[in-house]
Write a structure and sequence with these properties.
Elements: H1 2-5, E1 6-7, E2 22-24, E3 44-49, E4 54-57, H2 58-62, E5 67-74, E6 79-90, H3 91-94, E7 106-111, E8 116-120, H4 121-124, E9 130-135, E10 138-139, E11 149-151, E12 164-170, H5 177-180
Parallel strand pairs: 2-6, 3-12
Antiparallel strand pairs: 1-2, 3-4, 5-6, 6-9, 7-8, 7-12, 9-10, 9-11
This protein binds the ligand Nc1nc2c(c(=O)[nH]1)N[C@H]1C(S)=C(S)[C@@H](COP(=O)(O)O)O[C@H]1N2 and molybdenum atom.
Length: 200
Amino acid sequence: MPGKFFQKPGPDMQDRVPPGQHLAKGFPVLTYGQTPTIDIQSWEFKVWGLATPKTFTWDDFMAMPQQEFTADFHCVTTWSKLDVKWRGVKVTDFMQYLEVDPKAVHVMEHCYGGYTTNIAIEDFLREENFFAHTLFDDPLPPDHGGPMRLVVPHLYAWKSAKWINGLEFLGDMELGFWERNGYHHRGEPWAEERYSSRWG
Ligand SMILES: Nc1nc2c(c(=O)[nH]1)N[C@H]1C(S)=C(S)[C@@H](COP(=O)(O)O)O[C@H]1N2
Ligand SMILES: [Mo]
């Protein structure tokens, strides 16, 4: 009964809803597998690959500049949610704490629970991307990726890794979990980059 869960975008919203998407009521949870249990005391975030290896604690992240973000969220399974309010750390601010080899062209996002997703470095370094620990003024709920997730508003939400705990900087593209299983390598909603063709 899709009518119960989705609504047609109103005329004012039409230009914000990508082709083939519908507005979700509420904020659906979409996870492959179980929600991991993570406590903030032992939470760690690692950086490796073509970057100086570093480990950040929760306190390290909280000491970075914090900001509010409002962003639209598009899941490839055809639901979108507009104006989601988050709080966290901008990716470009976080990058000030890293030393990345200029040969890095791609990034693998790693998560508690083993999920991975890949992203080109120019998509990762966009000004509008952020790590989120707060959702609509409440601590980010575990099902939505708490204590911390990445949000990449300009790509389908499978790139917005929940429970993120690491970045691996890469000299070549490698594929993450859904990308190995047929999803598009990039995933741009306005171009409907949903799935990869069998030939590439
Ligand atoms: N670690 C992890 N991150 C993930 C996923 C997942 O299964 N595991 N699902 C992705 C998908 S397909 C979507 S649409 C969004 C859903 O985020 P939400 O559950 O907060 O709506 O998270 C993405 N990030
Ligand atoms: Mo999704």
